[in-house]
Structures are given as structure tokens and as C-alpha cells.
From TrEMBL:
Organism classification: Bacteria, Pseudomonadati, Acidobacteriota, Holophagae, Holophagales
Pfam families membership: Acetyltransf_10 (PF13673)
Top-level taxon: Bacteria
Official protein name in the record: N-acetyltransferase
Family matches, as Gene3D superfamilies: 3.40.630.30
Database matches in PROSITE patterns: GNAT (PS51186)
Family annotation (InterPro entries): Acyl_CoA_acyltransferase, GNAT_dom
Location of the N-acetyltransferase domain: 1-145
């Protein structure tokens, strides 16, 4: 990539740019529910964005107490910028937040091997309760349904 990528801690892009990036990434999120996307970011206290000019090419969303625990909710990278170090840089920016914060995340099935590659340790002692309200379709169905939106990213 010859374009300069700029990173912006505490920069929350607009909902439409987020929806398009999620659709392109593909990060199966409720892109068909813009209000829910807005509320997801409104409730997050860690948002780090990567841009090429005005174009959103990477996004990290999470929560932390800034002293002990942190959770990465989303790491979305535009396909044209994957393998360009954008994801690693966004994660590194998050790791700089707070002294002594232990970060955890729930990896998407298509990215599960990525985190070991960038130095994260796999954990086996987690638990979850299923999400209510919307469960994403298969990756193939998601991509087919949101191809027009992904093209806007």
C-alpha cells in the first residue's frame, strides 16, 4: 500500500462508514440495524480508527476500566488492507491504554488464528450466554445479503 494510513484513538466514525466496513470486513454485525450500531459505539469507551484519507479501513471497538480489565469487541479491517499491519497496529494502540490492563476478546471463526499470530494467548476458561435480538447468518449468507453495503467501504 502506498497510501498513508492514519490511526485515531478516540475517533468514532459515522454509522454509515461503520456499517459499510463491517459488511466488507466481513464482520457479521447487525448492519441492517443502524440504530443498534450507533448504540454499540455509544456504549463503548474504546474506539480506535484507521483511515486512508477519508476512507475508514480499520476499526477497533472495546471497553475497559483503564486499570485492570479490557475487552475487545470488534476488530474490523477492510479486505484491501488486511495483511498490511492495520489490525496489529489497532491492537497495539489498545494495549497502550491503561497500565496493567489485561485484554480479552472473542474471535470470529474466520479470524481465530490471527490473534495467536500477533502474540495473543488462547484462553480456555471463558463462558458466554447467547445473544438475544439477532443472531448472524452464515458468513456466505451475510456477504450475499450485504454486498451492496460492503461495496461502499
Amino acid at each position: 500500500m502506498t497510501e498513508a494510513i492514519t490511526y485515531h484513538p478516540d475517533c468514532c466514525p459515522g454509522v454509515e462508514a461503520i456499517r459499510a466496513l463491517y459488511a466488507a470486513a466481513p464482520l457479521r454485525r447487525p448492519v441492517h440495524q443502524p440504530e443498534r450500531i450507533r448504540r454499540m459505539f455509544e456504549g463503548s469507551n474504546v474506539v480506535i480508527s484507521a483511515f486512508v484519507g477519508e476512507r475508514l479501513v480499520g476499526l477497533l471497538r472495546g471497553w475497559t476500566d483503564f486499570v485492570y480489565d479490557g475487552y475487545i469487541c470488534d476488530l474490523a479491517i477492510h479486505p484491501a488492507y488486511q495483511n498490511a499491519g492495520v489490525g496489529r497496529r489497532l491492537l497495539d494502540e489498545a494495549l497502550r491504554i491503561g497500565d496493567g490492563v489485561q485484554w480479552v476478546l472473542l474471535a470470529s471463526p474466520i479470524a481465530k488464528d490471527y490473534y495467536a499470530h500477533v502474540g495473543w494467548e488462547k484462553v480456555e476458561n471463558g463462558w458466554k450466554v447467547a445473544r438475544g435480538g439477532w443472531n448472524p447468518p452464515s458468513l456466505e449468507a451475510f456477504q450475499a445479503e450485504h454486498a451492496d453495503l460492503a461495496a461502499k467501504a
